[in-house]
Amino acid sequence: MDKQHSVFSGIQPTGELHLGNYLGAVANWVRLQDNYDCRYCVVDLHAMTMPYDIAELRANTENMLIGLLACGIDPARANLCLQSLVPEHTELQWVFSCVCAYGDLMRQTQFKDKMDQLEGQQGAFISAGLFTYPVLQAADILLYRADYVPVGKDQEQHLELSREIARRFNFQFGEFFPEPRALATPTPKVLSLADPTRKMSKSLGPKHYVGLFEEEKSVRAKVRSAVTDTGEGAGEGMSPGVENLFSLLAACGDPAVHAALLKEYEAGNRRYALLKDAVADALVALTSRLRARRAEIAADVPGMWKQVRAMSEVSRDAARATLREVRKLTGLPSL
Ligand code: TRP
Q: What is the pLDDT of residues 92-112, one digit of tens each?
């Protein structure tokens, strides 16, 4: 493969990576490194759109960079940069703010959902940055003229807006930005262990997610107490909780064990204790491996930063080249 197509994706520094982030996104990013010219970005500027704690943002950013490297984002094969170290992201965002229709931003469901959540809270602050969040995301992607963006369902509307921004820019100033496409790769839907009707997420609370670097004991405890059948409707189809356990096993475990347990289930032997043991074993193997890798990287944090700064510098070169063209096309003087 000659890596002729480029991939870009971003992740907010949320603190701790969990299985949902890993199986739903990051593991896929790792696989793409072999076949595409990949650039991954920790989007710390996006994390400023909601009120936040300063020390926490610092710690979360560092943790996310270490976590991604531990998962196998490999500086020899891909670029891992930090959004705020490439100020061209925000410069291009301004240009795009003037190309993007106000009405299109109003129609973003993520913004509307956040507004609904926040409006119920007393004294909630809604920043203009939260509103223009998707414009910054479009700048992230188009700054590197990325061909593909691996994104989940929840980001499809933002990606469509990026395409619309590219089209409007091209129409107004001349053909320049390629329209980025979604890279749809089948990823398992990872649900909360404690409430398998909802997506695994940190915001639901600690019993709802399994941290990627979590210790064996708590991983086992969480899997053991995972919700399976609720009693009613047993014998109908597979319940969401059981399906979630099987899908975790399929993603992380031994295929033979998965097949054997599925056969048992289909024969009517609902031995959830065995299923849970198998899932716990698979998750413990994965988290132990990743935790060991994480410890190696965390042993040299200044070295990690040096590497990320160097990669961000490489990104800056590409970003500056784009901005030079954008300045020309839009009638601004060159720097
Ligand atoms: N909005 C994305 C999320 O919350 C993160 C993100 C920012 C992103 N910029 C991006 C994803 C560019 C893909 C491409 O998941």
A: 999 999 999 999 999 999 999
Using alpha carbons, list the distances in angstroms from residue 322 to 91, 178, 268.
11, 12, 60
Residue 24 CB-half CA count within 13 A: 18
Interatomic CA distance for residues 213 and 221, integer angstroms: 15
CA distance 228 to 246: 11
Q: Choose, from 3, 112, 114, 153, the residue flagged as catalytic.
A: 114
What pLDDT digit, counting tens, does each position of 127-140 carry?
999 999 999 999 99
Tokens at residue 44, please?
């710390």
What values do phi and psi take at 99, rounded to 5? -105, -25
Mutate to test the pocket of ligand 1, among 11, 93, 113 (most ligand atoms within 8 A of CB): 11
Mutate to test the pocket of ligand 1, among 36, 43, 48, 202 (most ligand atoms within 8 A of CB): 43
In this prediction the pTM is 0.95
